[in-house]
Structure formats: C-alpha cells, structure tokens
Amino acid sequence: MKVLVVGNGGREHALAWKLLQSRQIEQVTCVPGNGGTASMSQCQNLPLGIDDFEGISQFAQKEKISLVVVGPEVPLAMGISDYLHSQGLKVFGPTRAGAQIEASKAWAKALMQEVGIPTANAAVFTQASAAKSYVKDHGAPIVVKADGLAAGKGVTVAQTLDQAIEAIEAIFRGQFGNAGKFVVIEECLVGQEVSVLALTDGLTIRSLLPAQDHKRIGEGDTGENTGGMGAYAPAPIATPELMARVEKEVLEKAIAAFRAKNIDYRGVLYAGLMITPDGDFKVLEFNCRFGDPETQVILPLLETPLEELMLACIEQRLAQMPPIAWKQGAAATVVAAALGYPGTYEKGKAIAGIAEAQAAGAIVFHAGTKLQDQQLLTDGGRVLNVTGTGENFEQALAQAYVGMRCINFEGMYYRRDIGHRLKG
C-alpha cells in the first residue's frame, strides 16, 4: 500500500520511518517533507503546502494512496480530514470539530470542566484589562496561555506579576496571530509533566507508552518554552496504576464527551499531564495529534505495525485489535536546535556527521532540514532529533549523545541534561 504523510518535522520523519518498516508499505510520500525524508529509500517529498487540500487530494487519488496520515495540528484545525474524507480518502486524524480540543484552549477547558476531567482552575478573557485585573487579584506564579495554536510557544509560566502582565499584552498585541483573540489564565501547578498519547476510533482507546518531554530551552528546565528539546519513554513516573486512572478519568471521559457532542473523533488524543508531588495528576492540555518529540521515542519501541493501528482507528475496529506490542527497554531523543531558537535564528547552515551518528547506532530524525544540491542544510529552529534505544535509559541516553556528538552545524545547540529527572 501507498501512504501519504502530511508535514515536514521530526514527527513526520519518524512516522514515515516507522511506516516503511512494514512489509505492507511500498511507498511513502511526505508533503512537503524535509531533508531526511528526501534521503530515505521508498520515500519521496511532494512540494505542496500542508494547507493545499485540493492538491493533496488530487495527488492521493491519482497515485491511489491507501492512507493519509496528518502530522501537524494546523491542517487538522483547518479541516483537512473533513475535506479528504469528502473526496473518498482514508485519513488518520480527527475532523475540524475534534481538533478544537487543541485549537482552542478555552473550548478544551470548558469541556474538561463540563465532564469532570481533573484540570487546573482557570478563567478565560477577551480583554487585556480584565485579564490583568485577574492576575493582580490572584498573584504569581500564574500561567498565561494564548487560546489557539502557537507552535508550543504560547504558554508563559509567569513567576512575577510583571511577567504575567507582559505575557497578556503580548498575546493581545497579536504575537501569536489568531491565537491572541482569547487568553486563558490558570493556576500554576507544580510537579512533573508527562505526555500520554492514545489511539482512538471514537469508541475505544488504546494508550501508547507514556513519554516525558523537556520543554524549556535551558538546562535544568530554565528559560523559554519551546516545542520540545528532548524526550524519553516509557516515563517511569507514569506507573501502570496511574495510567489506568488516566485512561478512565481522562481519555475515556473525553471520548464520551465528543460522542455526546456528535463529534466522531478518530486519531490521536494526547493528554499533557502534570503529576503532582503527592502522585495525583491534572490535565494541562489536550492535543489532537502525535507529539513532537514524543513520537521520536515512542515509535522506535513500537512492534505492532503502525498502519494496522491507524486503519483500525479509521475503520472503527480498534476493539478487535490485539494488545499493542512493545519492545522491551527504553528510548531517548535529544534535539539539536539552531542558534537563537525559540527566537529568531538563521537558516541555510551546512550539516555534517549524520552518517557517522547513524553508524554509531543512533537514529537521526530530521526536523528543520532541507536537501539542496545534495547538501543537507538547516531549515528551521529545531533541526534534528538524535534518538537512542537500549535495554535501559542509561544505554538509550548514551547512544543518543554519542550520535549527537558526531553531528555539527554552525550555531548548533542542544541540552546536555535530557533525562535528568531519571536520576532523582
């Protein structure tokens, strides 16, 4: 079968890589893809925009694509699944109505409060003055969120009132575009964050391995929020007992809430959790797609063919599938970023050492790269993900860092403390 993957990041490279491990997959096309997907055998890039629904549909029909996998949240929020469904194509990813769970933090917060999903106390504002008054009344630390999609950068954990007010002003000033129409202000929760991704056909939920991301740019979890600087799986803090509770109290409640609203949700439902020091949890946010960089540590441990799980979701027969099979051991990934990320950064820097990293045993997933005249160049803020696997976290992290030290480009930056919580 032929598969089309929409997107150009490390997540999409990992999806294409995993799909091509199946004997059932003869070809993967990535739209628009990156330098890594351009370099894989049985994989090609198609230079279309992720919002060119008509172009994607025409190609998929002409090439008899059996499955379209949508990676990023933006086309899902725009309704790509609805459009491609209407053209008779099989699409893995929720409809526009379902994607609201990520596209609007205010909508998601209202849904959680409505059905009793544990989450932080919050208020939603449409005017900066009212939002500022609220934070002055409640004090800091406090969390300020842009309502819509902001590439993982629309959240400020304000330690002071001045930081909170500055974040509110930035959101209403339009720093995050359409995400600045509303602001959500939440109580500040303390603990460790865990990503729980699950597959669903709208009726049944199957959780994937829990992962732990490192969102801050600086070592010791300091500095600005990013799209993620590294991750590992399975996260030990998400014990089997906690996962059972999350499935019952979060995931199943969310899917039931979708059904009550006549939303047919099929795809990934991703709950970002805060595990509190007493071992309890609250939902920080929901996402409507695979996480990035969580996908880069979950998929290397997956044994069940990915396309079989995706088709079972699309065809609403997930309950009939055997339990998901996983490899023993652990996986860890480290992100190499461009100098200046998550702020402004330069592109077009030559990348060296990929082959050496792979020879050392690491898996290199490309994110912000492009292949130009046979030269691999940087083309984004998060440039590469170097993933290691092993019998334990020590081996997985060692392999990832050995691979990372093989790679070089001008201004390359990466955190050297990924997995630091594992030592506590």
From TrEMBL:
<dbReference type="InterPro" id="IPR016185">
    <property type="entry name" value="PreATP-grasp_dom_sf"/>
</dbReference>
<dbReference type="GO" id="GO:0046872">
    <property type="term" value="F:metal ion binding"/>
</dbReference>
<dbReference type="GO" id="GO:0009113">
    <property type="term" value="P:purine nucleobase biosynthetic process"/>
</dbReference>
<dbReference type="InterPro" id="IPR011761">
    <property type="entry name" value="ATP-grasp"/>
</dbReference>
<dbReference type="InterPro" id="IPR020562">
    <property type="entry name" value="PRibGlycinamide_synth_N"/>
</dbReference>
<keyword id="KW-0658">Purine biosynthesis</keyword>
<dbReference type="InterPro" id="IPR011054">
    <property type="entry name" value="Rudment_hybrid_motif"/>
</dbReference>
<protein>
    <recommendedName>
        <fullName>Phosphoribosylamine--glycine ligase</fullName>
        <ecNumber>6.3.4.13</ecNumber>
    </recommendedName>
</protein>
<dbReference type="InterPro" id="IPR020561">
    <property type="entry name" value="PRibGlycinamid_synth_ATP-grasp"/>
</dbReference>
<comment type="similarity">
    <text>Belongs to the GARS family.</text>
</comment>
<keyword id="KW-0479">Metal-binding</keyword>
<keyword id="KW-0464">Manganese</keyword>
<dbReference type="GO" id="GO:0004637">
    <property type="term" value="F:phosphoribosylamine-glycine ligase activity"/>
</dbReference>
<dbReference type="InterPro" id="IPR000115">
    <property type="entry name" value="PRibGlycinamide_synth"/>
</dbReference>
<dbReference type="InterPro" id="IPR020559">
    <property type="entry name" value="PRibGlycinamide_synth_CS"/>
</dbReference>
<dbReference type="GO" id="GO:0006189">
    <property type="term" value="P:'de novo' IMP biosynthetic process"/>
</dbReference>
<comment type="pathway">
    <text>Purine metabolism; IMP biosynthesis via de novo pathway; N(1)-(5-phospho-D-ribosyl)glycinamide from 5-phospho-alpha-D-ribose 1-diphosphate: step 2/2.</text>
</comment>
<dbReference type="InterPro" id="IPR013815">
    <property type="entry name" value="ATP_grasp_subdomain_1"/>
</dbReference>
<dbReference type="InterPro" id="IPR020560">
    <property type="entry name" value="PRibGlycinamide_synth_C-dom"/>
</dbReference>
<dbReference type="InterPro" id="IPR037123">
    <property type="entry name" value="PRibGlycinamide_synth_C_sf"/>
</dbReference>
<keyword id="KW-0547">Nucleotide-binding</keyword>
<dbReference type="Pfam" id="PF02844">
    <property type="entry name" value="GARS_N"/>
</dbReference>
<keyword id="KW-0436">Ligase</keyword>
<dbReference type="Pfam" id="PF01071">
    <property type="entry name" value="GARS_A"/>
</dbReference>
<dbReference type="GO" id="GO:0005524">
    <property type="term" value="F:ATP binding"/>
</dbReference>
<feature type="domain" description="ATP-grasp">
    <location>
        <begin position="109"/>
        <end position="315"/>
    </location>
</feature>
<keyword id="KW-0067">ATP-binding</keyword>
<dbReference type="Pfam" id="PF02843">
    <property type="entry name" value="GARS_C"/>
</dbReference>
